[in-house]
Amino acid sequence: MVKRALVSVSDKAGVVEFCNSLVKNGYEIISTGGTYKKLVEAGISAIEIDEVTKFPECFEGRVKTLNPYVHGGILHRRDKQSHLDQAKELGVESIDLVCVNLYPFKETIERTDDFDDIIENIDIGGPAMVRSAAKNFDSVIIVTNVEDYSEVIDAIENEKNTKDFRRGYMIKAYEHTAAYDSMIANYMNERFNEGFGEKQFVVGNKVMDTRYGENPHQKGALYEFDKHFSNNFKTLKGEASFNNLNDLNGAVKIAAGFGDDNAVCISKHGNPCGFAIKDTLLEAYTEALKCDPVSAFGGVVAVNGTVTKELAEKMNEIFLEVVIAGRITPEAQEVFAAKKRIKLFEMGADKLVLANDRKDFKHIDGGFVFQDADVVGANEVKNAKLVSKNAATASEMKDLEIAYKVASLTKSNCVVYVKNSAMVAVGMGMTSRVDAAQCALKKAKDMGLDVTGAALASEAFFPFRDSIDAAAAAGVKNVIEPGGSIRDGEIVDAANEFGMSLYFSEVRHFLH
């Protein structure tokens, strides 16, 4: 019995080879528009869609497959005699395989802002056919991804075309149309409702399962936007756990947040415990480690550049759980090879790569809160308002910038102390900003680090002068914070009393 396949694709990669294989396996090909033309030019005997619909494509191609002969051929049940009888009565012939991928909406909104063009690239008939075929997966194979062509042909040729096989493709099909419609809805809300419509869709593509979630009794998996991990995350050694991925995220954001600088961030449980920018990455790592070598044990290191053999040997002096870098040389990988528990990842680039997501969301019980992503402006420190009598020197401004950026990416309440482009103390995640400042200074003292002359940054205003008093006692020379407290005047007076420079950025960067 001759089977029929309806093939109508926007992405025509591999479609000729796929249809040739279908024909060899006894399928008759029905096709539309550009797909039909491509198949015929390749010598494949295809039936044009209007021969099936008995109605011409119309309205500039807006209507061509929305037809009972198409959807009846897909949807009628082969296991019900009444459906078979009615199909025969109406002259509806079975369609046993549907291969559709949709109009390139994403590519369109990336290349143009022309709304008329965008509207024309919203597929209507395609999703309808995909949904019809998926609904009747008991009898119909639905194919929506060019990467699945070979597997489908293998199933047809080797008696693997089972109901379970088709069920898997049914799920893929509904994921495909759901993601497509979600993208359109999100785009329209972004264009007309500032991104905050009545519905918000968060769609990710699965990259991998993790062994478990935060704890062994929880399942976990990594999903991505726009192939960020597929394109920029390569496993060299080990397996990234759920918690590794969260920790990596914080470390990479900080290390990569300084452009082309030789930056190294060491983090533990998502919090920075070491950071430095130096002339070489080896120097940067060495200085970053001094901040808190105790916390660095078993930590995550993000290197904004290439890990060389020399740097690897230095890192290998303590136990590190994860290293991620732009690149890790083969010689460096050999150095790490003897350490069974270390995990190595690279981004295949000269520097670390950020996705720069435009939106951010956090799960709360029963839902999620959604917001514009927080970004530290390129000139926030440069344009910060000097409110004290004394000003910072150029090198001191560099320390202020580093402290400010690290603080902006560290859990509130937090303060960050930086000296000579290296973090020398940090207090984060505290319920009190005073506690954060004092905890940071205590740890610095315990580590034998001198904060004299350091820059201090807070991601939110100081409500009282006590933190300034403590910083002055420790020898801090320069301070940057958002300002905005009703006691700002007292803070300014304190800075002037101690001869500090004090800057207000007038931008708050809470991270909860």
From TrEMBL:
GO cellular component, as recorded: cytosol
CDD domains per the UniProt record, alphabetical: IMPCH
Annotated GO biological process: 'de novo' IMP biosynthetic process
Statement: the UniProt record of this protein carries the keyword Transferase: yes
Catalysed reactions, semicolon-separated: (6R)-10-formyltetrahydrofolate + 5-amino-1-(5-phospho-beta-D-ribosyl)imidazole-4-carboxamide = 5-formamido-1-(5-phospho-D-ribosyl)imidazole-4-carboxamide + (6S)-5,6,7,8-tetrahydrofolate; IMP + H2O = 5-formamido-1-(5-phospho-D-ribosyl)imidazole-4-carboxamide
E.C. number(s) listed in UniProt: 2.1.2.3, 3.5.4.10
Key words of the record: Hydrolase, Multifunctional enzyme, Purine biosynthesis, Transferase
Pfam families assigned to the protein according to its UniProt record, in alphabetical order: AICARFT_IMPCHas (PF01808), MGS (PF02142)
NCBIfam families assigned: PRK00881.1, purH
Protein name (record): Bifunctional purine biosynthesis protein PurH
Species of the source: Sulfurimonas aquatica
